[in-house]
Design goal:
By secondary structure, this protein is of the alpha/beta class. The protein has helices at 3-6, 31-46, 68-73, 81-103, 119-126, 153-161, 163-172, 178-184, 194-209, 213-229, 231-245, 249-260; strands at residues 7-12, 15-20, 52-57, 108-112, 115-117, 129-133, 137-139, 175-177, 189-191. The strands form 2 sheets. Strands 1-2-3-4-6-9 form a 6-stranded mixed sheet, sandwiched between helices. The protein has a 3-stranded mixed sheet with strand order 5-7-8.
């Protein structure tokens, strides 16, 4: 399966749109999916013309989750220490696909419609902002399949919605809808339909792209560092980061534009 079949990439100004492009299979995620996901986000991270990314999907579902047939084949045949080690390495490689979303310095918005199951929730947890259509249905479905979600949901979701909601969803594997996701803070906005969803995604991404890009990227970096290292270390980190980067051209441009009562033009310098 080639890259073109898995994803479509379009750029509109400073916004990159990454589209899951396997509608015939409800955008299930096979091994190649995670490899290509890493490559795309590594490129987005390096491309200075991109200031924000929106993930969306073609077809009836955002994603039905992992390709269970492909992954099931990894557990077939004779089971030994070597095959278990191979499975561990495969899981770690798939995790890197999700990690690439989080590590990308450009903010990532997920625009979800209809079903987003299992591995799809792992993907959403790695994004910075999540919005959905009113018909969205989500689930940490792995629990109901006898599996332990292993691509980031169990590590990231508690920081997004708190342990109360998280443990209920993770331990039951039940479906939850867009309204519940909004109530618990997993998503921030609900749209009536996909057209409205993508308009909202573009508006949010445009607001991000209008800000000084180095500041936006620094905010994302400090958020993640503080989550992983705690408040005190996070405060020391942001103090050092600002001391190293200020003043800069974009800050001076923001001050000049304020004085001159005009819209600033930021260059990421």
């Amino acid at each position: 399966m080639n890259e073109k079949e898995l994803f479509k990439v379009e750029q509109d100004g400073h916004i990159a749109w990454l589209t899951l492009n396997r509608p015939d299979t409800r955008n299930i995620m096979g091994l190649a999916f995670f490899d290509e996901l890493s490559k795309h986000f590594e490129r987005f991270d390096k491309d200075s013309s991109i200031r924000g990314v929106v993930i969306k999907a073609e077809g009836k579902s955002f994603t039905a989750g992992l390709d269970l047939v492909e992954f099931g084949s990894l557990m077939g045949g004779e089971i030994g220490a070597d095959t278990r080690e191979q499975l561990r390495a495969t899981i770690l490689k798939c995790q890197e696909g999700m990690n690439a979303i989080e590590k990308c310095r450009k903010p990532v918005i997920a625009a979800v419609h209809s079903h987003c199951i299992g591995g799809g929730v792992d993907l959403l947890c790695a994004c910075d902002i999540r919005i959905a259509t009113k018909d969205a249905v989500l689930s940490i479905r792995e629990t109901r399949m006898g599996l332990i979600a292993d691509l980031g949901t169990l590590q990231r979701l508690p920081h997004i919605i708190g342990h109360g909601w998280f443990r209920e969803l993770a331990l039951t594997g039940r479906d939850f809808n867009a309204q519940e996701a909004l109530q618990m803070g997993f998503i921030t906005q609900i749209s009536e339909d996909r057209q409205g969803l993508y308009e909202v995604a573009k508006e949010i991404a445009s607001q991000i792209a209008a800000c000084p890009p180095l500041a936006v990227q620094g905010v994302k970096e400090v958020i993640l560092y503080s989550r992983d290292h705690g408040v005190k270390s996070g405060l020391h980190y942001v103090a050092q980061k600002n001391a190293a980067s200020l003043p800069c051209e974009d800050v001076m441009e923001a001050i000049r534009a304020f004085i001159e009562k005009r819209t600033p033009v930021f260059k990421g310098k």
